[in-house]
Design a protein that fits this description.
The chain has two domains: about 50 residues; about 180 residues, no CATH class. Helices cover about 45% and strands about 10% of the residues. The protein is built from ten helices and five strands, in the order αααααββββααβααα. A three-stranded antiparallel β-sheet has the order 1-2-3, with helices on one face. A two-stranded antiparallel sheet has the order 4-5. One of its GO terms (molecular function) is endonuclease activity.
């Protein structure tokens, strides 16, 4: 009797290795023996996949490549309006304070409610009210995420729907609003053209980011989103950075008929 008996598992290992070798050799022989046309088709498929991947990824990684491939070219009303905006890569947020824009401190239409309720009333459906014009509940088809959100007014529930400045207040400050007087900043801070009811977490994620750093996850809304930002900046004479403009053009490249919203 052997001093070191072989266990069942140790007896199986050589068989498994032999089986693996046979499988590998069989696959190699089968490929080598396959029809030359079949091999050519396989190589063509690989080449197409690699080519498509390069075509998608490289323009995103390299602005130079993106320019050469037309990634940052666009036509149409929104693109033409974008070309009228000043490009300024020397922007500064020094001195910014959100309170300088007086958000929710005006009542332009004199209905007794601030602009948050006015936007909720405009953007939600199935709206109910309390105390006159204050929105108590409603349903939002969120443009940023594509989700449907049931809104209920309350200390723990109101934040599910937030009001976003499409061109963020800090972005506006950096691109020209720092030079405005108080009346102009209050007008901007409460302009319904620049305000949307949106998903709360998406609004928090966006923060003060421009189109260079944040776009809605709902791809179907990106063209309209960028066009509204362009419209706001054109209305108030605000500038864009080179990177911001490039990102806007990349979006508008896919929607040549996109117009700047009129209201």
């Amino acid at each position: 009797m052997s001093a070191h008996p072989r266990t069942p598992s140790s007896r199986r290992r050589p068989y498994r290795r032999r089986a693996a070798r046979r499988t590998t050799r069989y696959a190699a022989r089968r490929f080598n023996a396959s029809n030359p046309l079949e091999r050519l088709l396989i190589l063509l498929v690989i080449a197409v996949v690699v080519g498509v991947t390069i075509g998608i990824v490289l323009p995103k990684l390299s602005p130079t490549v993106g320019g050469l491939t037309g990634e940052y070219t666009a036509v149409g009303d929104a693109a033409e309006t974008l070309e009228t905006l000043t490009v300024d890569d020397d922007q500064s947020g020094e001195g910014y304070d959100r309170d300088l824009f007086g958000y929710r401190e005006t009542d332009v239409d004199g209905n007794g409610c601030d602009v948050r309720d006015d936007v909720l009333a405009r953007d939600l459906t199935d709206v109910t009210y309390t105390d006159g014009c204050k929105v108590a509940s409603g349903v939002l088809d969120d443009p940023y995420t594509g989700r449907t959100i049931a809104f209920t007014r309350g200390a723990r529930t109101s934040s599910a729907v937030q009001i976003d400045h499409v061109v963020a207040l800090e972005n506006a400050w950096q691109s020209g609003a720092k030079d405005w007087d108080t009346a102009r900043r209050y007008e901007f801070g409460n302009d319904m053209y620049n305000l949307l009811a949106v998903d709360g977490p998406a609004n928090s994620e966006k923060g003060s980011a421009s189109a260079a750093y944040w776009l809605p996850t709902n791809g179907d809304y990106r063209c309209e989103y960028v066009a509204r930002q362009i419209g706001v900046k054109a209305k108030y004479g605000l500038s864009v950075t080179s990177q911001e403009k490039q990102s806007m053009l990349a979006v508008l490249h896919g929607c040549p008929a996109q117009e700047v919203p009129s209201s």
